[in-house]
User: Fold this.
Amino acid sequence: MEKLSFYEQVGIVIPGSALLFGLLLLLPELRSLFATGDVSVGGLGLFILIAYAAGHLLAAVGNLIEWIVWKVRGGMPSDWVTHDNPKIVNSQQIVQIEDRVRRRLGLQIEAIKGMPRKQWAPIFGQIYRDVLAHNPGRVETFNGNYGLNRGLAAAALALLSVELIIHPCEWRVSLGLGAVILVYGYRMHRHGVHFAKEAYHRFLSLPAEPPRAPERAK
Assistant:
């Protein structure tokens, strides 16, 4: 297996591990599947593989949570620049973003304001890739923490579903898991906003002209 990226480690493996640990607490009969006399490298590797697979399942649940949260908030933070009140940048920065998209990315666009999401999303994708290549800063960190909190909210939601099925009268545990979902949902929202802000601010700090391709040696 290739080395896991930062996003995969924090956004996939950790939530998957949290789900497995939670299931072992809620369903003690499952502990025999992992319990051995001592912790071995092979056993740890198996646990990570299962956690990785579980993390991808949680990502699907996380996508649902993500859709609900940003639907209420009027779209992803990266899309807010197309709104009347972009919140994460001011009107002057909007003009600068438009100029850099045209000059640095070579895309002939009209005004960003009012642009449909389906049209703006791939443009932001190019902005993000440009920032990662030339001025990443904390963008990857915010994106990784966004995925982490989304995954942990999904893990808590999955555990709450299991708890309601096996212990429907244990309201304290269910209430606690519900609070955990809210906390991680809030943290997901916060890191999503910081990610979009950082991406745009880093893009604006890049030169207006695109980087020149290296000359070939004669």
